[in-house]
Write a structure and sequence with these properties.
It contains four helices and three strands, in the order E-H-E-H-H-E-H. By secondary structure, the protein is of the alpha/beta class. It has a three-stranded parallel sheet with strand order 2-1-3, sandwiched between helices. It is elongated, with a radius of gyration of 14 Å.
């Protein structure tokens, strides 16, 4: 099975929760000491915060696309965003990611 791709850093606190939940679910279902393989790309939340305050969603889309490409190149089988805020660009990213085959 391919690793799960996770874009985090939006904030690191939520990223910790997503990572923990993924591994807790895997351990519950698979037992013993089983966890999931995760490829994580952590963006700089300070930059995202400034762009959010400036309502610059296009620049955030560029950052998220860069992260998605890095995760794809690392061999992930799917991509998760460890954040709620990016729902504003989710449709654009979903179309881009679907075109790339993740």
């Amino acid at each position: 099975m391919k690793p799960i791709g996770l874009i985090g850093g939006l904030t690191y606190v939520s990223t910790l929760d997503y990572y923990r939940y993924l591994n807790e679910m895997a351990n519950e279902r698979l037992g013993d000491a089983e966890t999931v393989e995760v490829i994580m790309y952590s963006v700089n939340f300070g930059e995202i915060k400034k762009l959010t305050e400036a309502d610059d969603w296009k620049s955030m889309e560029v950052i998220m696309r860069k992260a998605a490409l890095a995760i794809e190149a690392s061999g992930a089988g799917c991509l998760l965003l460890g954040v709620n805020t990016m729902h504003k660009i989710a449709d654009e990213e979903k179309d881009f990611i679907n075109l790339r085959g993740i």
